[in-house]
Amino acid sequence: MRAFIGLPLPHEIRASLKELQRELATAGADVKWVEPQNVHVTLKFLGEITEPQRQDIERRLREIGAASISFIAQLAKPGAFPSWSAPRVIWIGIEPGDKPMSALAARIEEAMGGVGIAKEPKPFAVHVTIGRVRSARGLRELSARIRGLQWQPPKPWTVSTVTLYESRLSPGGPTYAVLAETPLGRSVEAG
After folding, report:
1. Known catalytic residue at 11
2. Of 40, 49, 65, 131, which residue is 20 to 30 A from 169 by alpha carbon distance?
3. Which CATH architecture has domain 2-183?
4. For the chain, what is the largest distance between any 2 Cα atoms, rounded to a whole number of angstroms?
5. Could you tell me the residue ranges of all domains in the chain?
6. Of the listed 127, 131, 145, 154, which one is catalytic?
7. Euclidean distance between CA atoms 80 and 133, whole angstroms
């Protein structure tokens, strides 16, 4: 099965991102917008895993979760990979919450080596992917829209769960199924 480890986003956050996507889509750029139910923070892409690996991954996530604390996160400004001059991915940053997310991703990255999952060659970048650019059509207008954006990020939320997802690919786009949810040890509530 194809899998990844991520952080789910609350309904209100996904709804706010859907409104943002709707606004940006009026630029007419050739972007495949991520379906709101699929929006999340990827901490580690695992690729194809076996059932024994899955069980080991779940065990390691429980250990990491027990040793971690929940934290507050908030969406920030938009960005693009690799850059705005040649965008392939449109994303929204996270701040505050970026440092604990990066630390959590580093612990997961380290633990997955023991399961036979290759290390990521690129450094982890905290973000929520909202769209993938298919061609250069309309990018100038999209870039102008983003620069003039009056979007206000929604309220902060509490990150309290790490999720192991299965990613099922189909012609209509990917669908994600929750394989396991791991609570983060101690709680902190968003204010």
Report:
1. no
2. 65
3. Alpha-Beta Complex (3.90)
4. 49
5. 2-183
6. 127
7. 10
